[in-house]
Specification:
The protein has 117 residues and is an alpha+beta fold. Helices cover 45% and strands 21% of the residues. It has one domain. The chain contains 5 helices and 2 strands, in the order H-H-E-H-H-H-E. It has a two-stranded antiparallel ribbon with strand order 1-2.
């Protein structure tokens, strides 16, 4: 846990949760933005999915960034951990990813609107 916390701290330092543009808004904010922009007829569909994780490809997991402003897990490990710590963390995480251990969570909001002029 201490090793993983070092990596997590890097991500939190780069994108603090309260200012993270990927997480610091919800569907009400989207509607408010559309109203502020002058849209009168607004529709929003919210799709939330929580399910067991599927088996994953370790190399893809390791080399994919959650968004363009943060490092991949591989880069974060290289920046924060000593080689022996990196080996220990990878030995723990890799089988979990490959077995699909954990939970997958996603939320997608589809907003469409009509601006009456």
């Amino acid at each position: 846990m201490e090793i993983a916390q070092k990596v997590k701290a890097l991500y939190e330092r780069l994108q603090p949760p309260d200012t993270n543009p990927m997480l610091n808004f919800d569907e009400r904010d989207l509607i408010a933005c559309a109203e502020k922009a002058g849209f009168k007829e607004i529709h929003l569909e919210l799709h939330i999915e929580i399910k067991p994780s599927a088996e994953g490809n370790w190399e893809t997991f390791l080399r994919t960034a959650g968004n363009p402003k943060i490092p991949t897990l591989e880069e974060a490990i290289q920046q924060t951990l000593a080689p022996e710590e990196a080996e220990k963390l990878i030995a723990h995480l890799r089988p979990l990813v490959e077995r699909g251990q954990g939970t997958s969570r996603s939320a997608v909001a589809y907003l469409w609107a009509v601006k009456i002029v």
